[in-house]
Amino acid sequence: MQYGLSLPNGGVCGDARVLAELGCLAEEAGWDGVFVEDYIVHQSDGAVPTCDPWIALAAMAVGTKQIRLGTSVTPLSRRRPWKVAREAVALDQLSNGRFILGVGSGDAGEAGFSRVNEVRDAKERAKMLDESLDVILGLWSGEPFSYQGHYFQVQEMTFLPAPVQKPRIPILVGGGWPLKGPSLRAARYDGCCLYKQHEPGASSDWTPDEVRALKRFIESHRSEQQAAKPYEIKLGGRSRSEDWEQDRALMKSLAEAGVTWWVEYVPAGELEEMRESVNESPANLVRAALQAIHNVARHAKDFIHIGIFLGAQAYDYPGFEVAMEQQEGQALFALVGEHIAYDLP
Length: 345
Fold this sequence. Notes:
The chain is an alpha/beta fold. It is built from 11 helices and 14 strands. It is 37% helix and 23% strand. Mean pLDDT is 86; it is low at 301-345.
């Protein structure tokens, strides 16, 4: 399982320079991905400062080399698909093939819909989303393409350059689970970033059984050709709990059920606090544990072995247990990590 950050595009992050800084800091800290919200007015909260996430992602792309970058999510019903296709290819170029396009139909209550006379009907927005995706995929092909939809029309054109990533930029689809429309749409693309549908004001984490049900649904609605390709299930989207052990157990159980991305939300707040949250990454936690082991070992008078067992992916934090056994003057130090995937010296 990979671990990402979800960053707001409002509040202190209403300044694209701040988002660019946090994106670069996330890479230095060892996160696997950064996903930025896409609001016109951040969470429709009055006069809150808000920046364009696509511009901020461009700055992140130039300032980083490895971390994946994406939107979470872009409401395509209020965008022109050919413009999104062009911008996405530019981001894929700037990042050298690290961009992920997260899409959805959007929240009709958001000011980016309600205050500027965008389409608010849910069924109509869903149809516009489907047509937009048709157009984007057709244009990304790099081949002559035309399209006649109800909302969007394209006279034959060849859209170049094609994306850096092959066969194309990955598309993750958002929406409410288990709503049929978003779930079927998600099955047609490269992954999902669905949220659990709740009553207003209610919220709860996904359970392993719910993830398994989602996975079965997706698999049952993918063609044989689609089933041969990897599929991403990106969940999370909330801040860290104060109960580390509970979070650790949840992430481990969701990974075993099939989740491929756990994304942690860092809410807009004081900039220094946000920097601290970004720095508390899986890799930095592992490095801190390694340093603690080193410090203990350095002061041991007699030890014969330091065992470091690294498995396959980090963030089972704080599931790194330092075991020290004293036996006849010999010290054994072991750092045990069930889910570690970083190339650490």
